[in-house]
Give the backbone structure.
Amino acid sequence: MVEINKNVKLSEHFTLAEMTKTSVKTKDGNIPSRVHIENLRRLCGWLERLRQRCNEKPHPLTPSPKGEGEAYGSEGREEPIIINSAYRSAAVNKAVGGAATSNHLTGCAADIRCLGIEQAIRYAFILLDISAESGEAFDELLIEQSDKSIWVHFAVRPEGNRRKVAFLKK
């Protein structure tokens, strides 16, 4: 199996380890190629801008993780962007039931954990604003919800971005 340094920082706040984590055990160890890593770096650029916007001022729709104390964005308390899943090898993607054409396979997508629908909508609005202000396109911006959780699926490709926006209940 190929070994890589997963402590590599893809951006100021995101590491390769965070963007390749998985609970699924596979022979390949969920190791991305150099091209996948470049795609992850591009994606992390968007995630950094999202994080920066979330921390510009306090926002009442961003509670603390346990619903206690000060909200994220309050003075001195930065809101992290927590990634549930980003790069997936073909084996990992198959094991988690991912689509055969998933942007996760190329390192172009991340599923961002949300504490509720309000936070998911806020993240989506911020990402749409970033796209509009910068003139950069994204491929997918999906608010996805299961019985137990909600997340924002965000994808940006090197080219051929479709600006697909949707709310999906699974």
